[in-house]
Amino acid sequence: MVTTLTKDQALSPAPLRRRDDGPVAILTLSDPQRRNALSLATIAALQQAFDAIAADDKARVVVLAAEGPAFSAGHDLKELTSHRGDDDGGRAFFERTFGSCATMMQAIVALPQPVIAAVEGVATAAGCQMVAACDLAIAGEDAQFATPGVNIGLFCSTPMVALSRNVSRKHAMEMLLTGDLIEAGEAARIGLVNRMVPKGTALSEAIALAHKIAEKPRSTITLGKRAFTRQLEMPLAEAYAHTSRVIVENMLHADAAEGVCAFIEKRMPEWSKR
Questions:
Q1: Cβ–Cβ under 8 Å, residues 149 and 175
Q2: pLDDT band, residue 6 (cuts 50/70/90)
Q3: Burial profile 85-108: b = 16 or more Cβ within 10 angstroms, e = fewer
Q4: Rg (CA), the chain
Q5: I need a labelling partner for 52 at 20 to 30 A (CA). Which of 20, 22, 61, 208 fits?
Q6: In degrees, to the nearest 5, what angle opens at C-alpha 216 toward C-alphas 214 and 222?
C-alpha cells in the first residue's frame, strides 16, 4: 500500500517528497531543473525528513531517490556564490551550509533504519557524498559518480569523509584528485554502490531490497546498524569487546529467543512489533 504524508506531516516547501510503501519510506528529491542541488532549504528538508523517520515506528527502511537526469549535483554553487557579497565575504553562510550538510549526512548514518540510495544519472560532489553516506546503494547502468571540486579550485573535503569510508584509500584519492566521472560498473567494483542494474530500475530494485530487509526483526536491524557503524571506528580488540557486549544484549532480546526457537523447531518466526 502506498501512502503519502498528511498535511500535518508535510515537509517544508523545499523540493523533497515522501511516500510510504508499507514499511518503506521513500524520499524523492524533486528539483530536476537544478539537478537536485543541495541548497540550504533542501538540506533542511532532508534533515526534517530523517528526524521524522527516526521517530516513526512504522518505517523500517528508507529509500532515497531523485527525479530527472541527476541524482544530485551537490551543493548549490549559485546560492553559495550569491553570498560572496556579504560583509564577511560569505563566511557565515558557508559555515551554515556546510555545517548543516555535515549534520544531515551524519543523520543518515545515525538513523535507526537502513537507508538505500537509488541512483539514476549523475551523483557528484555532495551528491556523491550522500550516496556514500547511505548504508546501501543501487545504481542504474547510466549512473555516474564524481567528486569534481578540484576542477573548480574547491577540493571535495566534506564528501571525502563519506567516500573514504566506503572505498579504498587509493580509489578515493584518485576520485578526489582527478575529479573524473566513474561509471556505475566501476562504482560497484570499488564498493561505492552495491550493484548496477538496468537503466530506470534502480528505484524498483531498491524498494524490493528494502522490503526484503523490512521482513527482518526491527530490533535486530536497528541494533546491527548501530553496532556496525560504531565498531568501524574502533581498534580491533575494542571492536570485539564492543560487539561481544552487543551480541549478549541481542541474545537476551525476545526476537532472538523467538528466532532461535523457530529455527530449532523448523517453523517461521513470529517477530515482535517493536
A1: no
A2: very low
A3: eeeeebeebbeebbebbbebbebb
A4: 20
A5: 208
A6: 80
101 vs 259: CA distance, rounded Å: 39
Cα(5)–Cα(34) distance, integer angstroms: 24
- Minimal CA–CA distance to 126: which of 178, 89, 173, 161? 161
For 92-132, what is each residue's pLDDT tens digit? 999 999 999 999 999 999 999 999 999 999 999 999 999 99
Cell of 134: 547511505
φ, ψ dihedrals at 3, nearest 5°: -125, 165
| Residues whose CB falls within 8 Å of the CB of residue 158, separated by 6 or more in sequence, listed in order | 98, 101, 102, 105, 126, 129
Structure-block grid coordinates of residue 22: 508499507
| pTM for this entry | 0.91
3-state secondary structure (DSSP) of residue 267: coil
Cβ neighbourhood burial of 48 (10 Å; 0-12, 13-18, 19+) = middle
Could you give the 3-state DSSP secondary structure of residue 26? strand
Place of cell 553496532: 227
Return phi, psi of residue 205, to 5°: -65, -40
Do 130 and 115 meet the contact criterion of CB atoms below 8 Å apart?
no
C-alpha cell at 167: 572505498
Neighbours of 239 (CB within 10 A): 15
Beta strands of 73-193 (E only): which ranges? Answer: 115-119, 122-124, 136-140, 144-146, 182-183
